[in-house]
Amino acid sequence: MSYRTDNVFARILRGELPAHRVYEDEHTLAFMDIMPQVDGHTLVIPKYPAEDLFDLPAEHLRHTIETTQRVARAVREAFAADGIMIAQLSGAAAGQTVFHLHFHILPRSAGIDFRLHARDMAPGAVLAEHARRIRDVLAAGH
Ligand code: 5GP
């Protein structure tokens, strides 16, 4: 399969669809997952048009994983998480549903289970509040 420019994350990058953004730089963007599996579920994408992990040049991969680390640190603090799980699904057989490469940041705490993958939309006000919490930590330079 080759990269399709009409996927939802490409449309978010172009500003054609809204997203609760938490971080952006020259190479990457991070925003809240619209169907979070756990509160604080955040996605990090490269701006480079890569369909999956195997499609991204190494330099862009470095930028993307550095942003993932930076945002994951902020998510961990914002949600007082005991741990952070990073997930990356490449290929439909692995469960990938949006074909623009992304890393999932999933805060984990004892006793809090995952909701089902890509199932229930969270209210916009909740996502806005969660994004604000993460942005506040980033703004504080943590
Ligand atoms: P994948 O299954 O490809 O690894 O994950 C795609 C993720 O994108 C899912 O967790 C799903 O909830 C999320 N998602 C799907 N459509 C949208 C959207 O329009 N906006 C946002 N913010 N997330 C989306």
- Binned, the helix content reads 25-40%
Query: Alpha-carbon distance between the termini?
Result: 39 Å
Roughly what is the average pLDDT, rounded to an integer?
96
Give the number of domains: 1
Q: Which descriptor suits the 3D outline?
A: globular
CATH class: Alpha Beta
Number of strands: 5
Low-confidence stretches: none
The CATH architecture is: 2-Layer Sandwich
Coarse structural class: alpha+beta
Output the CATH topology. HIT family, subunit A
- CATH superfamily annotation: HIT-like
Tell me the strand percentage band: 15-25%
Tell me the strand order in the biggest sheet. 1-2-3-5-4
Q: Tell me which ligands are bound.
A: guanosine-5'-monophosphate
Order of helices and strands: HEEEHEEH
Explain the overall architecture.
The chain is α+β, with helices and mostly antiparallel strands. It has a single domain (8-139), classed as HIT-like (HIT family, subunit A), CATH 3.30.428.10. It has helices at residues 8-13, 58-78, 124-139, and strands at 21-24, 28-32, 42-46, 83-87, 103-108. A 5-stranded antiparallel beta sheet has the order 1-2-3-5-4. It is globular. The mean pLDDT is 96. Guanosine-5'-monophosphate is lined by residues 8, 17, 19, 31-35, 89, 95-98, 118.
